[in-house]
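Two quick folds needed for the group meeting slides. Do the first one here.
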Amino acid sequence: MADRAVTTTDATAGERRRGRPKVVSDARQRDHIVETGRRLLLERGYGRTTMDEVATRARISKQTLYRFFANKSALFAAVVEEHRHSMLALPGDYDHLPIAEALKAIVRFDIGAEEDRERHALLEMAFHESVSHPEIREVILTHGVELAREDLARWLEARARREALAIDDPDTLARILMDMVFGAGRPPPRPGETADPAARRRQLGSCIHVFLYGVTPR
């Protein structure tokens, strides 16, 4: 009977242990909140999105949400920081690729039309709402554009050291390349429009070619 009692107690304790919810790490919890915030911002826009809605959609308490992000601006900054990797695939290891192919990988040359449309949607939302919410522009610049440019400048500088490239001012060159690729590039297709990925790739290829070689004959 004693042995049986011990077995039953152990089984009961095991059931309790199995029934306990798994603890989610802070990193995973934060990633979940950022992704939830991104989707809600795209659905409702910056002005209409509230922290209460983010907590509800993420199925967390407001206390948990505010433990990670003090306000909506801080959450938006985290969304923008994550978003910048969809614009420039950096940091990354491209040492095995010729420089032209490496730059194609960095600017997401082969990205699909739907993903291209989605990654531009956040910037379009920010552009339209920056008049009513001027803090958006500063967040985009500080947590998106400037960090992406720093990533690209570091990569160009490292590549220049390896290949003795004529890169005296990597920050300026990074700015020029980003202006070429994103400033005057083909806009992504709008919902309902037919995507033309070949045209997008041709334009990106031309940007990279002119950036590397200019327009004079090689």
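Then this one, please, same format:
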Amino acid sequence: MSTALITGASRGFGRAVADALADRGWRLVIDARRADVLEAARAALAERTEVVAVAGDVADERHRAALVEACDETLDALVNNASTLGPSPLPALAELPLPALADVFRVNAIAPLGLVQAVLPLLETGGRIVNVTSDAAVEAYPGWGGYGAAKAALEQLTRVLAEEHSELRVYAFDPGDMRTQMHQDAFPGEDVSDRPPPEERVPALLRLLDDDLPSGRYTAEALL
């Protein structure tokens, strides 16, 4: 049985990925900050596969250690999906509080690297690391400077990890705009129902787990 560790898996894209892997019979280790929402996700997933849920903040080293322990010394794929948007509505860089920016970097760039460092001993040759990123990492959108800068940092970390660990497949994956709570928070009061549901983007990520694609940056649009 293959094992995947998926962060931010209680809702949105992370939950959609967990659902797809549960249908395939993968063993899952999932996390989220809200224990009640995570437990609801765990209960639903447990009807189809073995799943361990650990509530907490990926920016907390002790929480990351608990996630690694829950993997039980075996891991085939790490999906670093958990992210924080930062202040909502999105402020211009001139108005972005620096403590909030530091928090965005802790969650969106430093925590994923910390989790990679922690799970490397569990990943065998061919293991997959998927760091979920955003077009905001490569395009300049007003208001998205903090989030985009942190995702750009994550992408550079991904590129270097791929060079340093040729025995693994290390991916930066941009799913594109989706109908998620995070996207709603980015545009408070606006209707985001025209965005595709996250389930539509999951098949693209599954290609990164199934196919022997070289390490690199991929968009859902290119893989679907």
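Slide caption for protein two: The first strand starts at residue 3 and ends at 6.
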